[in-house]
Amino acid sequence: MTLAGAVFGYPLLAFGCACTLAASLEWERAFGAWRVPGAGTIAILSYSIYLSHKLTSHANELLFGKESMSGAGGFALYFVSSIAVGALLWLAVERPFLLLRERILQPGRAPDS
């Protein structure tokens, strides 16, 4: 990352994210009936993907070399492997503990404070 990228790039990215968020606040009212295929799955896996995407990127670099992580092919490899590892983490860790939580806490019963 260059100095110019750090000074100007990150704030521009943050501003773009803020604009996207602001635009999405009106999205449901205008397009609430639209269903995006796969969006629910990505929403379920999002936290697991967030937790594992950097490790997945590093593992890809170790397995396939740093050169393989550039260009469209590198992006596709990173994208697919991040989702696959996130799904595996969700299936192996997150889902079993969510099911355990549901068994321990009966529906309608708040946890003791």
Mind explaining what this structure looks like?
This protein has 113 residues and is mainly α. It folds into two domains: 1-33; 35-105, no CATH class. It is 77% helix and 0% strand. The chain has helices at 3-24, 27-31, 39-64, 71-104. The chain starts with a helix and ends in a 9-residue tail after the last helix. The model has no long low-confidence stretch (mean pLDDT 87).
Gyration radius from CA atoms, angstroms = 19 Å
**How helix-rich are the residues, as a percent range?**
over 70%
- Ranges where pLDDT stays below 50 over 5 or more residues in a row are none
Global morphology: extended
The total domain count is: 2
**From the helix content, strand content and strand pairing, which structural class follows?**
mainly alpha
Largest sheet: none
Extended strand count: 0
Fold topology:
Layout: H1 3-24, H2 27-31, H3 39-64, H4 71-104
Descriptive keywords:
mainly alpha, extended, 113 residues, 4 helices
Question: In short, what is this structure?
Answer:
By secondary structure, the chain is an all-alpha fold. The chain contains four helices and no strands.
